[in-house]
Design a protein that fits this description.
The protein is of the alpha+beta class. It has seven helices and 13 strands.
Length: 308
């Protein structure tokens, strides 16, 4: 029988706060108002139900289920196949006003996973866990003396692995862009998922068109419409934001042969540029958002069922 070596990775931090206080924060892991998981800079932890044994989910491409749960003390997550292993959080009391938080990951190494862990996953994993500890410390003490710093390698990995925009129809609720022209000669829409802490106001997302001085021609609800009319064609760009996603849509109306010739060239690069610009502002707003610990006191305390 072939044996696989086990990766074991342990992080721990002493927190100057009662174990019960820290445990209460960990009970909110994966909730809509999670105060400790380092989203939106990293993919949020999400499950198909509130945190408890049997909940299935994960973060990003890493999938797992809750196999053991002691509220305020311990949560263990077993990886779903083809991965084999687990990770868990434990809170230990060190006295009335001090505790230790430990995160342990054990993973069987097999095939390309060995190289992937050594080159990329380990470095991002270490950063996520230390940022989570920063959030715990920030939430209970109000400060973090030595916050984690991203290495140049982590910054590069983060940029390379950031999610991509996906295409689809114009959003149903984007009424401005859907009604702007009676007839269109071109339309597309590119969307990305909203993460916790990202702005739901479309105004900050206008920077997606950085470098293009298109005037705002309309605002309604979660949509901002920009554009310009010219002799050869009319152009509109819509930024629509809701709780699920942000969408960058484009519609074009062509007037004459000059417009057809111009757009025949531009439309070859337009989809690439639209995806690139949306992905760039999506990542920028995620990296500049307040931390989970800073957001939590301002958000509603009543939980919202997951999976709704």
């Amino acid at each position: 029988m072939r044996r696989f070596r086990t990766i074991r990775n342990v992080h721990e931090r002493t927190i100057e706060a009662p174990a019960q206080t820290v445990g209460t924060l960990l009970e909110r892991l994966s909730s809509p108002h999670d105060p400790v998981w380092p989203a939106p800079a990293w993919p949020p932890m999400r499950f198909d139900r509130p945190l408890g044994v049997g909940a299935d989910g994960g973060h990003g491409f890493v999938r797992y289920r809750v196999s053991a749960y002691e509220p305020g003390r311990r949560a263990r997550f077993d990886f779903n196949p083809p991965m084999s292993g687990h990770h868990e959080f434990v809170v230990e009391s060190l006295g009335p006003d001090r505790c230790r938080v430990r995160h342990t990951l054990e993973l069987q190494r097999r095939g390309p996973m060995v190289l992937g862990w050594a080159l990329a996953v380990r470095w991002m994993h270490d950063t996520v866990i230390e940022e989570l500890f920063d959030n715990i410390e920030r939430a209970v003490t109000g400060t973090v003396p030595n916050p984690v710093r991203w290495s140049p390698w982590v910054r590069l990995l983060h940029r390379l692995t950031w999610e991509r925009a996906t295409g689809g129809p114009l959003p149903t609720d984007a009424r401005l862009v859907r009604a702007v022209f009676e007839q269109t000669d071109y339309s597309d829409a590119w969307r990305m998922a909203m993460r916790p802490g990202m702005p739901r106001d479309p105004e900050p997302w206008r920077a997606v068109l950085r470098g293009a001085s298109f005037p705002v021609v309309g605002r309604e609800g979660g949509e901002v419409l920009l554009g310009e009319d010219a002799g050869h064609l009319d152009f509109r760009a819509s930024i629509h934001v809701d709780d699920r996603q942000v969408t960058l849509s484009t519609v074009v109306r062509i007037h004459n042969w000059r417009g057809r010739l111009y757009w025949a060239v531009v439309k070859r690069v337009h989809p690439f540029m639209a995806r690139l610009m949306l992905r760039r502002i999506h990542r920028r707003l995620a990296l500049t958002a307040p931390s989970a610990a800073e957001r939590a006191p301002l958000e509603p305390a009543s939980p919202v069922p997951q999976g709704s």
